[in-house]
Amino acid sequence: MSTNDPIDRLKDAINSHDPHRVADCFTTDYRSETPHRPQDGFTGNDRVLMNWTAIFGRLPDIRAEVLRRAATNGELWSEWEMAGTAPDGTQAVMRGPVIMTTRDGRIDWTRFYLSPVAVDVNG
Length: 123
Fold this sequence. Notes:
The chain has 123 residues and is of the alpha+beta class. Helix content is 24%, strand content 43%. It is built from three helices and seven strands. Strands 1, 2, 3, 4, 5, 6 and 7 form a seven-stranded mixed β-sheet that branches. The N and C termini lie far apart (35 Å).
């Protein structure tokens, strides 16, 4: 599916499990900010490719879902849930908001607030 909506395009790319497709959603000078872990911020879609290659290696069945979205003053706000199965068989879940801006149809800046969710393994 091809879409011009950057949020849907990113979700579809993640769900395709193709790290090159994910990296293509971002500009070459993309800037990532992670306010809860400032040391994890970076610049460049080459790092996106590296990160998502590692994520797909660890969680090969990861699925992304956009729970909510809004747009204001040139920013796109979205709430995400990503879930997959770790190599040891446990469920890994991340949830939280992502704020982004775009340029020429690609994401050029984000603030990620995704955090791990405690999953009840006992049901």
